[in-house]
Amino acid sequence: MKHAAHVLLVDDDASLLKLLGMRLESRGYKVTTAESGRQALERLEQVRPDLVLSDLRMDEMDGLALFHQLQKRAPGLPVIILTAHGSIPDAVSATRQGVFSFLTKPVDRDELFSAIDDALSQTQGGSVEAGDDSWRSAIITRSPQMERVLEQARMVAGSDVSVLVTGPSGSGKELMANAIHQASSRADKPFVAINCGALPEQLLESELFGHAKGAFTGAISQHEGLFQAADGGTLFLDEIGDMPLPLQVKLLRTLQDGQIRPLGSTASIGIDVRIISATHRDLDRAMSEGDFREDLYYRLNVVNLRLPPLKERAEDVPLLAKYLVTQAAERHKPFVKGFSPEALNLLASSAWPGNVRQLVNVVEQCVALTSSPIIPEALVSQALVAEENALPSFNDARAGFERSYLIKVLKITEGNVTQAARIAGRNRTDFYKLLGRHDLEPGIFKPGANAEEMG
């Protein structure tokens, strides 16, 4: 076994826990133990197991209750349940609910290892072995929220289903797409990315599908598109929500037929490409407004991975800052060693509306301007002010205005959604969608609610 699979072992009998742990370690597994369901959930905040092996009968929280909690916190994490009170109804009920396997104690050694191997083989992403984290090396995190997304990414990597990565600008959607590619069986083939909002329609069509010689003015030779360039690998369509409607039709036909037709050509070309797309836009709203095709949405959104904004993973800021300062120092100023504790505290407590991309900018500015090996708090403060004064993108500016406006009308109406929607000139359904997009809860604006929660 090249990389040791990590097993979280849960049993309230300390002697059995130790014995089973030794048995698993002798087989080469990495083992973390917990003496209760509650302790197992605490362990999950600190470690990322490949599999959970739990006793069924435990005080406070039994094995099935633990399984349901694990499903919420780490969807898809395989669970094997052991019981000394094995019964057919229990086993049928557990496996119907999604428990991978149900074994009776005293468990047969070979039967246990066989069940563990089966569980791991079904949940491994294409070319990734248990315990091998090289596929996700570009994503630096210790956030449980981000770890859950990565666990889902690893699982979905093994199939060829289309994945839609959503999240705010600068949260790392392309890095996540590349990680899925690296964890898949296509890892040795190309990963090709394009921003669908950065090019005019005809140029985007030519880039994606290619064109024949003479297809349009300036097409002096045949051009192979990105679908062909990514053949056998993965094509990442960033900002898919900005793709013009005529191209959405052509993309849908390509996904249905597995063929492309270059611009100006009469011949179709077969392609084998896995599609991962991303957007920071609300595609439900875009569909309701007629800007995005519903049939294409369901083709692209087989699995949705939502990346949290940086403010929801504040524990990652010092980790990212230390990594980024090392990278920037290597490129520009090797004498720079890092941030002062006060500077790190300031970074960790900032709001980061521009997410990881904004943090990268701040670190780069600090390294460029520092004359000392340790970057002081004052320099971080200066870089943050400079970032705040930088002109935001149109989308960020619109989102910022929307959020401020919604907060204002909710404050005026003291959280009364009907009145607030009337002021905004929206129906209640649309208004609730807007509130959901900006994570605003009307209840916190009602009299007596904690004013600090109002954002």
From TrEMBL:
UniProt key word Lipoprotein: no
Gene3D superfamilies: 1.10.8.60, 3.40.50.2300, Homeodomain-like, P-loop containing nucleotide triphosphate hydrolases
CDD domains referenced in this protein's UniProt entry, alphabetically: AAA
Biological process, per Gene Ontology: phosphorelay signal transduction system; regulation of DNA-templated transcription
Protein keywords: ATP-binding, DNA-binding, Nucleotide-binding, Phosphoprotein, Transcription, Transcription regulation, Two-component regulatory system
GO molecular function: ATP binding; DNA binding
Domain (Sigma-54 factor interaction): residue spans on this chain: 139-368
Pfam families (alphabetical): AAA_lid_14 (PF25601), Response_reg (PF00072), Sigma54_activat (PF00158)
Span of domain Response regulatory: 6-120
Keyword Phosphoprotein: yes
Residues with the 4-aspartylphosphate modification: 55
PANTHER family listed in its UniProt record: TRANSCRIPTIONAL REGULATORY PROTEIN (PTHR32071), TRANSCRIPTIONAL REGULATORY PROTEIN GLRR (PTHR32071:SF116)
NCBIfam families hit by this protein: PRK15115.1
Name of the protein this chain belongs to: Two-component system, NtrC family, response regulator GlrR
